[in-house]
Amino acid sequence: MLVNTVSEGCPIGPLQAELLPANAVLAESKYGTKADLAAFALGRTYGNGWAMLFGQFAVAADVVHCLLGVSEQVHRRALRSLQNRL
Q: Measured between alpha carbons, how far is 77 from 19 in angstroms, rounded to an integer?
Protein backbone atom coordinates (compact mmCIF):
# COMPACT_ATOMS: atom_id res chain seq x y z
CA MET A 1 0.00 0.00 0.00
CA LEU A 2 1.20 3.47 -0.87
CA VAL A 3 -0.45 6.43 0.84
CA ASN A 4 0.35 9.94 -0.36
CA THR A 5 -0.34 12.56 2.30
CA VAL A 6 2.01 15.29 1.10
CA SER A 7 0.26 18.54 0.24
CA GLU A 8 2.33 19.30 -2.87
CA GLY A 9 3.85 16.85 -5.31
CA CYS A 10 3.95 13.10 -5.34
CA PRO A 11 6.33 10.69 -3.58
CA ILE A 12 6.77 8.59 -6.74
CA GLY A 13 7.12 9.15 -10.45
CA PRO A 14 6.17 7.08 -13.49
CA LEU A 15 9.26 4.85 -13.28
CA GLN A 16 8.65 3.97 -9.62
CA ALA A 17 4.94 3.38 -10.33
CA GLU A 18 5.83 0.75 -12.91
CA LEU A 19 7.76 -1.14 -10.22
CA LEU A 20 4.77 -1.40 -7.87
CA PRO A 21 3.15 -4.83 -7.75
CA ALA A 22 -0.13 -5.28 -9.64
CA ASN A 23 -1.99 -5.81 -6.34
CA ALA A 24 -0.65 -2.61 -4.75
CA VAL A 25 -3.24 -0.26 -3.25
CA LEU A 26 -2.72 3.46 -3.79
CA ALA A 27 -4.46 6.10 -1.69
CA GLU A 28 -4.04 9.81 -1.13
CA SER A 29 -5.52 12.66 0.80
CA LYS A 30 -5.84 14.86 -2.28
CA TYR A 31 -8.72 14.82 -4.77
CA GLY A 32 -9.76 16.40 -8.03
CA THR A 33 -7.02 17.86 -10.21
CA LYS A 34 -4.55 17.75 -7.30
CA ALA A 35 -4.74 13.95 -7.04
CA ASP A 36 -1.30 12.86 -8.21
CA LEU A 37 -1.45 9.12 -7.66
CA ALA A 38 -4.47 8.63 -9.92
CA ALA A 39 -2.21 8.85 -12.96
CA PHE A 40 -0.05 6.04 -11.58
CA ALA A 41 -2.81 3.67 -10.49
CA LEU A 42 -2.61 1.79 -13.81
CA GLY A 43 -5.51 -0.54 -13.01
CA ARG A 44 -4.58 -0.94 -9.35
CA THR A 45 -6.96 -0.25 -6.49
CA TYR A 46 -6.97 3.50 -5.92
CA GLY A 47 -8.74 5.87 -3.55
CA ASN A 48 -8.55 9.64 -3.42
CA GLY A 49 -9.20 12.10 -0.62
CA TRP A 50 -12.97 12.41 -1.17
CA ALA A 51 -13.61 9.39 1.03
CA MET A 52 -11.42 10.82 3.79
CA LEU A 53 -13.13 14.19 3.54
CA PHE A 54 -16.55 12.54 3.65
CA GLY A 55 -15.54 10.48 6.69
CA GLN A 56 -14.55 13.62 8.58
CA PHE A 57 -17.82 15.28 7.62
CA ALA A 58 -19.89 12.24 8.60
CA VAL A 59 -18.38 12.14 12.10
CA ALA A 60 -19.13 15.83 12.63
CA ALA A 61 -22.64 15.45 11.21
CA ASP A 62 -23.30 12.54 13.61
CA VAL A 63 -22.50 14.86 16.50
CA VAL A 64 -24.50 17.92 15.46
CA HIS A 65 -27.50 16.76 13.42
CA CYS A 66 -29.76 16.56 16.49
CA LEU A 67 -28.66 20.02 17.62
CA LEU A 68 -29.79 21.33 14.25
CA GLY A 69 -33.19 19.65 14.54
CA VAL A 70 -32.49 17.07 11.82
CA SER A 71 -34.08 13.69 12.53
CA GLU A 72 -31.96 10.55 12.61
CA GLN A 73 -33.81 9.18 9.59
CA VAL A 74 -33.23 12.30 7.47
CA HIS A 75 -29.63 12.50 8.65
CA ARG A 76 -28.87 8.86 7.65
CA ARG A 77 -30.63 9.25 4.29
CA ALA A 78 -28.61 12.40 3.53
CA LEU A 79 -25.33 10.71 4.46
CA ARG A 80 -26.13 7.70 2.22
CA SER A 81 -27.01 10.02 -0.64
CA LEU A 82 -23.74 11.92 -0.31
CA GLN A 83 -21.72 8.74 0.06
CA ASN A 84 -23.23 7.33 -3.14
CA ARG A 85 -21.89 10.33 -5.03
CA LEU A 86 -18.27 9.59 -4.11
A: 42
User: ∠34-3-8 over CA atoms, to 5°?
Assistant: 35
CA distances from 83 to 19, 32, 79 (A): 33, 16, 6
In DSSP notation, the chain reads: -EEE--SSS-S--HHHHHHS-TT-EEEES--GGG--GGGG-TTSEEE-HHHHHHHHHHHHHHHHTTTTT--HHHHHHHHHHHHHT-
- Tens digits of residue pLDDT in 56-66: 999 999 999 98
Compute the distance between CA of residue 65 and CA of residue 13 in angstroms, rounded to an integer.
43
Give the pLDDT band (50/70/90) at residue 22.
very high
Domain ranges for the chain, please list them.
1-47, 50-86
